[in-house]
Amino acid sequence: MGRDTGVPQPEAGRPGGQKRFSAARAGGGAPGGTMGSPTQLNAPRPALVETAANGEPHLVNRELVTVVREEWRVVDRWWTEEPVDRRYFEVVLESGRNVCVYRDGDRACWFMQRA
Amino acid sequence: MIACLLIPGFELRVALRSRPRLAAVPAALAPPPGREPVLGPVTAAAEAAGVVAGMRLGEALATCPELALVDPDPAGAEREWEGVLRRLEDSGFGVEPVEPGVVVFETRGVERLYGGVEAALSKALASVGPAWDPRVGAGQRRFVALAAASVARPGQAVIVEGEEERSFLEPLPLSLLPLEEERYAELEGLGVRTLGALAALPGGAVAERLGQEGKRAWSLARGGERRRVRGRSPAAELVEALSFPEAVANELTLRRAFGALLDRLLARPERAARPFRKLALSARLVSGGSWRRTVTLREATGERGRLRSALGPKLMEIPAPVIELRLEAVELAEHTGQQLALVAPEGEDADMRLREGLRQVRASAGGSAVGAVVEVAPWSRIPETRALVIPKDV
Q1: CATH class of the region B238-332
Q2: Which of A46, A50, B191, B342 gives a 20 to 30 Å CA spacing to B305?
Q3: Which whole number is the average pLDDT over B290-297?
Q4: Residues A85-110 pLDDT 10s
C-alpha cells in the first residue's frame, strides 16, 4: 500500500501552516471569515489522505474509506500560469459520510471540496 | 481625504490611569487570563530595557526582571475609547473605529467648516485632547493615512498628497503591515526590509511565495485599495451602574444587583419602548482590573425575564469580587413592537423578518459579516470559481 503525505507540505511544520496554504492557493478564506472583499465559495481545504497502491484514497482525515463511488479528472486552464490538474474521488467513509477529495497534480497534495 | 487618528498603546494608557506611577517604569499590559502569554503594549522605559509588545512573557521577564505587569481594563478601555469617538463625532467627524486606539474618518465633509484639511486635523487632535498623545495622518487611501499617523509625533498631523504616496511609503518598515511574525523573518531573510522593497517585487511572485496574506501585504505596500470610510451610527448612551460599599463575590447579591440595574435600564425614557438588540455587562474588580461581556440577543427584546436569562449566567464568569457593576445598552432595535402572526409569514412579512435576522447577525459579528452568494460561472468545472460571497448591506 502506498503512502501519500496528504497535507500540503510547504507550511506543514508551522502552526497554522495549512490554513495559510489553503488561503494562498484557493484565493480566499472560508465564507465565514472576514469579508472586506468578495471571497470564494466552496474553496478547497487541505485534507490528510493516505492512498492505496492504485492511487485511490484509503484513509481521509484518519478515517477509513469504505467505498470509492466515483472518480474523475479535471484538467483546465493549462494555457494560463495557474493550470488546474485534479483527480477527484467521491468516497464513502467508515462513518457513512460522503466526501469529495482531490489530488492536485501540480503540487502533489490532497484537498477536500464539495464538487 | 481619509484621516487616521492613532493613540499608540491605548489599552495600556487606560490601565495606567489608575496607576500613573507605573508609566515611568518598565511596565507592560499583561496578557488576558486564559490567552497566549504574550505581552500587550509596553511603556517607553520597558522598550529602553529591551522589552517589546508581542514578546513572550517568560522572555520579557528574563530580559527585564523588574518589568511590572499591568492588568488589562477592557471595560475602562471601551468606555474611554467611546469617549474619544464621541468627542470626534461632536466635532463633526463621521468616524469608523478600527480598534481601540485607531479610528479613520473622512475630512471632506468638514474641510469647509474648519478651513481646510490641516485645520480639520488640528480640530480632531484638539477634540481628543493632549492627554492621550494622539497623532493623525491623512492621505487618499486608508493605509497611507495609517502609515502617516504612525510616523507622526504626538499632537502632529502628517498629510500625504496623492503624488507623494509612493515616495512616502518606500522607506517605511515592514512592521506597519499586518503580517505574522514568521513572515517578517521570512521577508527579512530575503533582504526585503522596507515597504518600497516589497512593493518593487512582482505581485505574482509574492503571492506564490507568501500566499494570500503576502499578496495583501504587497498591495498595502503599494498604498492599498481605495475604500471609502463608513461612519458609524452613534450609539445610544444608556448605562446604569451600581457601586458596592464593599467588594461583592456572592452570586445571589450580584444577581439582585443585576436585576435592579435591568429594571432601571428598562425604565429609561430615552429607550422610547425600543427593545434591546445588544447589551454589555461589565464589572470593576477589587483587584483593580475590570471584566466585560457583550451579549447580542437572538431576537431584540425588552422583556425582563428573557433579558435576565440571557445575561444572568454571565455573572458566574466574573473572576474576582466586584466593586461596581454596570449594564449598558450597546444597540437598540429600531422597531417598538412586534405583531405576532396568526398564519405563517410570507411575502413582505417574511422578508422583513429575514432582514431583522440579518441585522442581528451584523450586530453580533460586525458590519461586514453579512454576504450574498453571487454565481459568476455556474458552468465551471472548477468548483471554487462558480460563486463568490460578496459583502451585503442589509
Answers
A1: alpha beta
A2: B342
A3: 86
A4: 999 999 999 999 999 999 999 888 99
Measured on CA atoms in the order B178, B183, B187, B193, is the torsion positive or negative?
positive
Of chain B, the percentage scoring pLDDT greater than 90 comes to: 16
B210: nearest CA partner in chain A: A24
Q: What does the domain layout of chain A look like in residue ranges?
A: 17-26+40-112
The pLDDT-based confidence of A68 (bands split at 50, 70, 90) is very high
* Contact call for A36 and B207, based on CB within 8 A: no
Q: Where are the domains of chain B?
A: 1-18+73-234, 19-72, 238-332, 347-391
Q: What is the average pLDDT score of chain A?
A: 74
Strands B68-70 and B27-29: parallel
B234 has pLDDT over 70:
no
Interval A28-57: pLDDT, tens:
333 334 445 778 889 999 999 999 998 999
* Top-level class of domain B19-72: alpha beta
Phi-psi region of B189 (alpha: psi -120 to 50; beta: other; left: phi over 0): alpha
Here the ipTM equals: 0.70
Distance between CA B384 and CA B361 in Å, rounded? Answer: 25
Region for B273 from its dihedrals, namely left if φ exceeds 0, alpha if ψ lies in -120 to 50, beta otherwise: left
Cα of A110 vs its chain's centroid, Å = 4
Distance CA B311, CA B280 (A): 9
- The reported pTM is 0.55
C-alpha–C-alpha distance, residues B271 and B334, integer Å? 10
Residues in contact with B76: Cβ distance below 8 Å, sequence separation at least 6, in sequence order: B14, B15, B17, B290
Chain B's closest residue to A21, CA to CA, is B211
> For the domain B1-18+73-234, what is the CATH code?
3.30.70.270
Cβ of B386 and A42 within 8 Å? yes
β-strands B95-99, B102-106 pairing: antiparallel
The enclosing H or E element of A24 equals helix A17-26
* pLDDT tens string B324-344: 999 998 888 876 666 666 766
